[in-house]
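Backbone-to-sequence.
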């Protein structure tokens, strides 16, 4: 019974790896066909994460918070509404960016 389960698990793992490779190649070829050549990249999808300097990351969160505060001021919200919207846009933009 254990040998059968092990064989099944290894088969599923192999199939999943092959499917992932097929999806990556399909997406790459689709992107190459749709996007202009200056937009497509030659790096593989598994090239890794790009490191953003901490100062730039904090500046982006600050700008998002200020824009949220300005939007709250346009809608005539009180200080608590400005703080809430500023925090939501500042941190929300950082979370989406990550």
């Amino acid at each position: 019974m254990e040998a059968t389960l092990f064989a099944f698990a290894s088969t599923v793992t192999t199939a999943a790896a092959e499917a992932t490779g097929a999806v990556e190649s399909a997406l790459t070829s689709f992107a190459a066909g749709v996007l202009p050549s200056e937009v497509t990249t030659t790096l593989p999808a598994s090239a890794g994460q790009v490191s953003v300097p901490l100062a730039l990351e904090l500046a982006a969160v600050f700008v998002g918070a200020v824009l949220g505060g300005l939007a709250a001021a346009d809608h005539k919200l009180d200080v608590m509404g400005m703080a809430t919207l500023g925090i939501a846009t500042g941190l929300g933009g950082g979370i989406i960016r990550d």
